[in-house]
Amino acid sequence: MSFLHPNASIEEAATAIRDGEITSEQLVRFQLQRIQRLDSKLKSFVEVYADQALDAARALDKLLQSGVCLGPLHGVTVAIKDLFEIEGRAIGAGSRAVEPRTSTMTATVVERLRAAGAVIIGKTQTVEFAFGGWGTNAVMGTPWNPWDLEVHRVPGGSSSGSAVAVAAGLCTAALGTDTGGSVRIPAGLCGLVGLKTTHGLISRNGLVELCPTHDTVGVLAHSVRDAGILLDVLSGPDALDEATKDAPTREVVPQLEHDVAGTRVWVLPESERHATESEVLVLYDRALQQLSELGMVLVERELPQSCTESMRIAGSLMSAEGYATLGTLFEQDLLFDPHVRRRILLGRAIDAAQYIGLLKMRDKARAEMLAAMDGVDVCCFPTNAITAIPVADVDELSTPLSRFGRFVNLLDLCSIAVPAGLSSAGLPVSIQFIGRPMAEPFALRVAHAFERATPWHDDVPTGLD
pTM of the prediction? Predict the structure, then answer.
């Protein structure tokens, strides 16, 4: 395996498999060995499909030997957040309140991954029912951020296990969801690329919902190109999800190399820089300088609605819809994460009139933001206001990790988080490129240009080998 490092990208792994340098079975065995050695500490997986993954890999190797390549993921491993249905497998949504049930269907996104040649290696941990940004789970245990093996630091949530598994080289990529930052937050804290897609671009058929107006399917990977590969596989209309009926069918990867000189980039307003770690701001400003050197034009203007107000509206909608979806369950005297239960039950006090009012506020804010984006191509903000703190220091009543996340979901924008360097403590810092609805190709193009011009995506956790 010396020619394929643990943090190899999809493109590197798939190319090595197609070129015969390695088989899919060898890749799967290598990653299963890492899981067996490391995951008792990291706790990123809730279930590993060892036998099934090996069987799938051997079948894919035979297809390749006969000249058949299923697609860009042929033989590469992908882990699935435990919110997606996979027929015949348990689904628990990060909860122990009730016994995990066995799925009787498979989510559309999982079917599309398999059709493109992916090996599904297992299910990953999540915050209970995906309602939390720290990545903590009081009933299932909190995955360990692999960037500090001495101190248990938060991985970010809610796609906590997916981020840890990819960052630690236990799988090649992973599926997550993003309702208020749940892909970008853990990607940022774990030194990965995380893509939050526009609502309705990727099917949510077979997804356990929390907040239907905000829930989106996203991916965690090692590079922007990997995110583009996964996006091309996953996006497009699905008759089983009405929200995707107008989803465009397009190829994003070929557009990544297009020139970005002259791109107008909306930067974080001075009024929004408060409550952000100084080191985060230093590295963010360094990233902006790099964008200028790439020929992009930095634009300063105020947000039509503050991040704080967007957080408030989005949080209320998440509680209201979370209670509508899960309230009957959370009203029972069962073993829940008390912090998630509190967030869900907050929705009990939001009546129909208040809910409709929140939706109207959301529509108004969306219209104002789209109007304000006239004359700019993409926004560039920090992904997280802080770096990963010790789990012991978490205040579950505070939401600093949602500061730059929730407004993207509230306004139904797309966003891709990319590494932007390490703090003095050696912890990842990230920036995100935010685009208009369905503007993923352009946001990824800018992110790809930044990634190619900087070394930060090459940083990986140490001490795992």
Answer: 0.98
